[in-house]
Design goal:
The structure holds 2 protein chains of 2 kinds. Chain A is of the alpha+beta class. In chain A, 26% of the residues lie in helices and 27% in strands. In chain A, the strands form 3 sheets. Chain A has a 4-stranded antiparallel sheet with strand order 5-6-7-8, with no helix packed on it. Chain A has a 3-stranded antiparallel sheet with strand order 1-10-9, with no helix packed on it. Chain B is built from 17 helices and 2 strands. By secondary structure, chain B is mostly helical. In chain B, strands 1-2 form a two-stranded antiparallel sheet. Chain B folds into 2 domains: 250 residues, Cytochrome Bc1 Complex, Chain C (Up-down Bundle), CATH 1.20.810; 103 residues, Helix Hairpins (Orthogonal Bundle), CATH 1.10.287.980. The chains are: A alpha+beta, B mainly alpha.
């Protein structure tokens, strides 16, 4: 093969395979992509939540894009604990100041970053959250401290529309 | 395919067979020479075929009443249980049938491990079997999601999230699998489609599994090659058909016990609560047949490595024919392997037990030791054992252990050589 000079036929074969491969890929892509989130799913992008009834130490769970979101009005003690943690003690170092711009309010996806269970409130070794599925402990800032989860609970994009309403997404 | 030429007796049969040799195939399957010393552990292939057909038939019927929609799935299952004629029976057969299927497949796999059925020249049969086993797990998992109860929902969440451990593309893959940002209606509809598809893929692979089996023929408890057809073999029909049939009847008694007397004992009460994306049940556990792998997943404190360990535990079986360096098939002639075999059985049972328990304290420690041992067995013990072990001499034929020491021995050997 190698010492033979390429002929017209070799060129035709190569060209045919190449066009065939491109064609097959072009046909496969719509079949694959149809499984991605559709327009109606994407349309449910944001949720507004009234948080006026929350007292310090209370948490509510709301549904956003099918996922639970924890909104916690933290006590001063919880804020102090969260802000005094040294960065080198964290598995996924993030400052509490960056996670909760307004220290009283912690807004995050209530989804354990291990395998997606909903952690339980006011539980665990760090008095934050505890995931019952595989034993991940989160602190009062929702940061992973112990267990198999690799990251802190995710803080979604949100803003205060007014003093009593948070818009998530 | 057949070991001898076959001509149908009737003229019409001959006419048909010349055009499509189905009768030759049927004749091959009835005459197929089978080692005469097969014990009852060899009846699980037939039992598994029965399980597959039962699942396909009951599943087909259930699909006539089930509605694959997040708002209606749970109610439609209750509708099947309460309103559909014999719906309760069909659903309980299907749900417990999955457990029976796995019970039989585990016995079938451990039979193969004991008698070395995975070794040359049967590696392809074994690998096809492992693929079937993987597809069974996928089908069972997706089927468990369909009733859309709490365990369905959270089981689906946890298992699909395993893919998020893949570096870089993990989150994208999970979103793609879900068709959204969480397990929801798009996930349910695609799981239903795939749950319907997979059994037919399994059926196709079962045909290949049996085809690959019929090339070298069955292994047997002594684990030596038989000459076929010879004094060592009996035709599949009626000998094996009757034996398989009797074993199947015994198996169906166990099956019927679960269906009629304890239909929910293998399930979880939480699955009779409709799926709620805001609350995870306090203690989520997979079905019993996935527990050993679940224990391996949880025993590793790192997310990615945990998933890798769990998948490796299954995939390591595919390379087993090359990890086991011993040329002797049957554990009967491998005194050390026989002991390690039973330790492995115990190890897997322990993993299953701790997989059902909370992942903390002593349970976690046991899970870690058992996980380490599981891999040690396949990666260290088997390769070394094959080289070091002093095995018991093999008999000349499978007839010898039966007639050995009796005056008939000489006659048996004479007959053997005559057939050769």
């Amino acid at each position: 093969m190698s010492d033979k000079k390429p002929e017209r036929r070799d060129f035709l074969f190569t060209a045919t395979y190449a066009v065939g491969a491109v064609g097959a890929a072009a046909v496969v892509w719509p079949l694959v992509d149809q499984m991605n989130p559709d327009a109606s799913v994407k349309a449910l992008a944001s949720t507004e939540v009234d948080v006026s009834s929350l007292k310090p130490g209370n948490t509510i769970t709301v549904l956003w894009r099918g996922k639970p979101v924890f909104i916690r009005r933290r006590t001063q003690e919880e804020i102090d604990v969260a802000r005094s943690v040294k960065m080198e003690d964290l598995i996924h170092p993030e400052k509490d100041e960056d996670r909760a711009k307004n220290p009283e309010w912690l807004v995050m996806l209530g989804v354990c970053t291990h395998l997606g269970c909903v952690p339980l409130n006011d539980k665990g070794d760090y008095d934050g959250w505890f995931c019952p599925c595989h034993g991940s402990h989160y602190d009062t800032s929702g940061r992973i401290r112990k267990g198999p989860a690799p990251w802190n609970m995710e803080v979604p994009k949100y803003e205060f529309v007014n003093a009593n309403t948070i818009k998530i997404g | 395919m057949s070991d001898h030429e076959y001509t149908p007796k009737s003229k019409a049969g001959k006419w048909f067979n010349d055009r499509l040799p189905l009768l030759t195939l049927a004749n091959h399957l009835t005459d197929y020479p089978t080692p005469k010393n097969l014990n009852y552990w060899w009846t699980f292939g037939g039992i598994l075929t029965f399980c597959l057909i039962t699942q396909i038939v009951t599943g087909l019927v259930l699909a006539m009443h089930y509605i694959a929609h997040a708002d209606m799935a749970f109610e439609s299952v209750e509708h099947i249980m309460r309103d559909v004629n014999y719906g309760w029976l069909i659903r309980y057969i299907h749900a417990n049938g999955a457990s029976m299927f796995f019970l039989a497949v585990y016995i079938h796999i451990f039979r193969s491990l004991f008698y070395g059925s995975y070794k040359s020249p049967r590696e392809i049969i074994w690998i096809i079997g492992i693929i079937i086993y993987l597809l069974m797990m996928a089908a069972a998992f997706m089927g468990y999601v369909l009733p859309w109860g709490q365990m369905s929902f959270w089981g689906a969440t946890v298992i699909t999230n395993l893919f998020s451990a893949i570096p870089f593309v993990g989150e994208g893959v999970v979103t793609w699998l879900w068709g959204g940002y969480s397990v929801d209606n798009p996930t349910l509809t695609r799981f239903f489609t795939l749950h319907y598809l997979i059994p037919f893929l399994i059926l196709g692979l079962v045909v290949l599994h049996i085809w690959a089996l019929h090339v070298p023929g069955n292994n047997n408890p002594v684990g030596i090659d038989v000459k076929k057809p010879s004094k060592d073999t009996v035709p599949f029909h009626p000998y094996i058909v009757i034996k398989d049939g009797f074993a199947l009847l015994m198996f169906m008694i166990v099956f019927a016990f679960f269906v009629f007397y304890a239909p929910n004992i293998l399930g979880h009460a939480d699955n009779y609560i409709e799926a709620n994306p805001l609350v995870t049940p306090a203690h989520i556990v997979p079905e019993w047949y996935l527990l050993p792998f679940y224990a391996i997943l949880r025993s590793v404190p790192d997310k990615l490595l945990g998933v890798v360990a769990m998948l490796s535990a299954i995939l390591i079986l595919a390379v087993l024919p090359w990890l086991d360096t011993s040329k002797i098939r049957s554990a009967v002639f491998r005194p050390l392997y026989k002991q390690f075999y039973w330790i492995l059985v115990a190890d897997v049972l322990i993993l299953g037990y701790v997989g059902a328990m909370p992942a903390e304290g002593l349970y976690l420690l046991i899970a870690r030791v058992a996980t380490a041992y599981y891999f040690l067995h396949f990666l260290v013990i088997l390769p070394v054992l094959g080289l070091k072990e002093r095995t018991i001499p093999l008999p000349l034929s499978i007839t010898e252990p039966v007639l050995g020491g009796s005056p008939n021995m000489a006659m048996a050997k004479k007959n053997e050589s005559k057939i050769e």
